[in-house]
Amino acid sequence: MVLTPGWVWQGGPTRRALGTGVPTGLFLGAFAFVESGSWIAAAVVFLLLSPFHGIRVARRMGRAWPGAAQLDAADRAAVVRATRRGADLGDPRLAPAVIDYAEALRNVREQDRIRRWVVAGLATVALVLALYDTHSGERGQAVASWLVLAVFLLDLIWRPGQEDAVVARARRAADAARRTLRRNPADDLP
C-alpha cells in the first residue's frame, strides 16, 4: 500500500481494486506469455490474478485507512497527494485526515517488514530455478525465470528505500497538519 500510486485512492473500493489488480494481472500475464508462449495462458493468468490481487489490495487499503471512506474523492485525493509529497495541505478541515493517512502508511510499512524475508526466500528459489532453466529448460522458461529473479531483486533493493522515503514525507506532512490544527483548534471540531 505504501507504494500504491495516489491516483488509486481517488475512487472507491472498486476503482482501487481495478487500479491495482489490472496492472498486476497484465504484468503477470506477460510473464505467463514469455514462459509459455501461449496467449491463452496469459489470458487465464490475467483473468484469475487481476480480481484476486485487486480485491485483496483494495480491502487492505480500506482496513489500513478507514477514514478514507468519510472523504469525498477530491478531498481524499488532496490528502493522499499532500501526504505522499510531504506537503503542508494548509486546510484545517483535512488536517486530521492527513495525520490519519500518514499513520496508516507507517503502520503498513511496519507490518510489511516480515515480507522482506519472504521475498528474500523467494528470490533464492527463483535463482535456483533460473540456473536450472538456463541449463536444462527451454529458452522461454529461462527468460521468464531470470525476469522473475530480477523482479524479486528489484523488490529487495529498490522498494525499501522508496517506502522509507514515502513514510518520511508522510511524517513531514503529518507534522505540518498538527501545526495547522494548533493554529486553528476550533476547526478540528466536527
Q: What would your notes on this structure say?
A:
The chain has 190 residues and is mostly helical. 78% of the residues lie in helices and 0% in strands. The chain is built from seven helices and no strands.
**Proportion in helices:** over 70%
Number of separate structural domains: 1
Tell me the span between the first and last alpha carbons.
Answer: 28 Å
Rg, alpha carbons: 20 Å
Class inferred from helices and paired strands: mainly alpha
- Main beta sheet: strand number and arrangement? none
Pattern of helices and strands: HHHHHHH
Count of β-strands: 0
Count helical runs. 7
Query: Which parts are unreliable, with pLDDT below 50 for 5 consecutive residues or more?
Result: none
Gross morphology is elongated
Question: What is the arithmetic mean of pLDDT?
Answer: 89
The proportion of residues in beta strands is under 5%
Helix and strand arrangement:
Blueprint: H1 13-36, H2 39-64, H3 73-85, H4 95-111, H5 113-136, H6 139-157, H7 159-183
Helix pairs in contact: 1-2, 1-6, 3-4, 3-7, 4-7, 5-6
